[in-house]
Amino acid sequence: MKTAIVILNWNTKGFLEQFLPGVLSSAGCAEDGTPGGDYTVVVADNGSTDGSAEFMKERFPGASLITLDKNYGFTGGYNRALAQLSGFDCFLLLNSDIEVPKGWLEPLTEFMEKNPDCGICAPVLHAWQDKDRFEYAGAAGGFIDRYGFPFCRGRVLKWTEKDEGQYGHSPADVFWATGASLMVRCSLWQALGGLDDRFFAHMEEIDFCWRAHLEGWRACVVPVSTIYHLGGGTLPAESPGKLKLNYRNNLLMLHNNLAKTLAVKYLREGLSASKASTKARCRAGRRIFTRMVLDGISAAIFLLTGRTSSFKAVTSAHKEYKKLRGKAASAKELEAFLSTHGNACISGIYNHCLPISALVFGKKSFGKLQRGIK
Description:
Blueprint: E1 3-9, H1 13-26, E2 39-46, H2 52-59, E3 64-68, H3 73-82, E4 90-94, E5 98-99, H4 106-114, E6 118-127, E7 142-145, E8 150-152, E9 155-156, E10 159-160, E11 172-173, E12 181-185, H5 186-192, H6 204-214, E13 218-229, H7 240-268, H8 273-304, H9 308-324, H10 331-341, E14 349-350, H11 354-359, H12 366-369
Parallel strand pairs: 1-2, 1-4, 2-3, 6-13, 7-14
Antiparallel strand pairs: 4-12, 5-13, 6-12, 7-8, 9-10, 11-13
Helix pairs in contact: 6-7, 7-8, 7-9, 7-10, 8-9, 8-10
């Protein structure tokens, strides 16, 4: 399968210098970046001001370089870059702060070749600083709870686990795969219109995977492929800007997908398409409202503990969400969706509130949450 490995760069010249040679070598490219075999490495520069584009031309003149006029974020940058690529079977979105070992690529492309119903796959993500420990951004594959809070096999909230083989070594279906290293069929990317541009960054891969599930595709993790993620290269973990994007985009993700998912669920439970659509629209609205209340509680905690910048980030996230969300799907629109997508199979949602399960009941590992996933 002809695959374009696309690295979106924004002011991370140091990461390109450190990690790109390993990516090129693993893809069978020459040292200067000239493609070899079925893999082509592309660096898409998102309007960097640190000399990244000039560095690429000097150090890796054989590599494909796409230069964008400004920083369009993760979503806009990839959407614009991948629109310029053709003739590939798969895209592999790869962060610039990833260290890869030899032989990490072939298991991914082989899995996609053998599983035509899989539209998305990813390797297991370990921490670069502690190579035996799962990394926060994706670990061994992701899931969400009923209110949209994400977690992973190997990571719940801020707690990560050491990889001791507890999740096996065979490919596994997941709800979402990490955007730090995301392989997707080009046909699926085009059918979904790429990433949701409104997100800018964060949660976009979860939304993309959710939309893919609604179209009947699987998302999988291939554990025989493991890579190492440095993390925090663009926005620090405690950044108020990152916090705002996470809160805002989580709500956008629910707005995009929750009503359709519930409509499919109720249809499968035996309701007519009309009743399933009406019920789903109502329940989705209530659940999103509950999520916003939970956000409000966390904002109050931020304020009471003196974290005023975090408090402002949450309130700003809700304001932006209300501006960006658009109208919710009507019952008739949901019914029309069911007429063509009623057989979609969406699984991997934890049927409880993750923060309460973890913080109140001490369920801080995937194994303790697994029984509640449907």
